[in-house]
Structures are given as C-alpha cells and as structure tokens.
Amino acid sequence: MKRMVVWFVAAAVVGLGLYVRLAPSDPARWHVPVVAEADRDLPGGVIRVVRTGPDGLARLDRVARATPRTTVLAGSVDEGLITYVTRSRVFGFPDYTTAQQDRDTLRIYGRLRFGRRDFDVNRTRVDGWLAALQS
Predict the structure, then answer these.
(1) Would 57 be classed as within a structural domain?
(2) CA 77 to CA 75: how far, in whole Å?
(3) Is residue 56 part of a domain?
(4) How close are the terminal C-alpha atoms of the chain, in Å?
C-alpha cells in the first residue's frame, strides 16, 4: 500500500511538471496592451512605466532576447508590442512579460502564469532589463 502511494505521488509530480512545461501559451490571453500610468509591484508580477525615448522597445528587445530561457510569444518591435515567455531554470514555470512602446514611454508588465506569488522573480527580471538599458 505504501509503495502504491509513493508511485501515485511520484506520478502526480511528474504529471504536474509536464503540464507546466507543455501547457500551451495563448497569445490572445497574454499578448495584450499594457494599460498603466505608473509603476506597480503586484503579488504575481510588476508593472514599470519608464521614459526611454522612441527606441526603448528596440533596445529592450535585444536585452530580453539575450536572457536565458526567454522566447518571443507574439509581437514585434515594428508592432510596438512584444510579449516574451521566460521559463524558470528548474521546473520551467512560464512567466510572461509584455512590453509596449508609446512614443517616448515604455510600459512593461511582467507576471506569472501559475500560482499566486512570484517571490519577486518578475520584478528582478524586469528591473534588470531596465538597468541594462541604462548601461
């Protein structure tokens, strides 16, 4: 009986891990304009609004694409709106970061997909990307 419980728990953990890694990312849900006028720290993410000049999104795109385990879900610099997926190293949890250029203002919204708290992972990544723009 104990062995069966152990196998069930192991199968559940593996199943959850596969679901997290293989669940499809729907651009209609995650690739949406960022509506914000000020910075906000949220339990599951972060919003940043910064003046970067008109080329802020192009510069951020280079930084984001150089980030490990980060891919583009949808959008482009020419479109003025890009959504990235960054996966955690161990379990592959996806976080979504949408960046939008509005004239000289860059709006960025980084958020988690699974869970309620991200333990500042999105804030650290987004603030790191913004720091890289200034260097």
Answers:
(1) yes
(2) 7
(3) yes
(4) 60
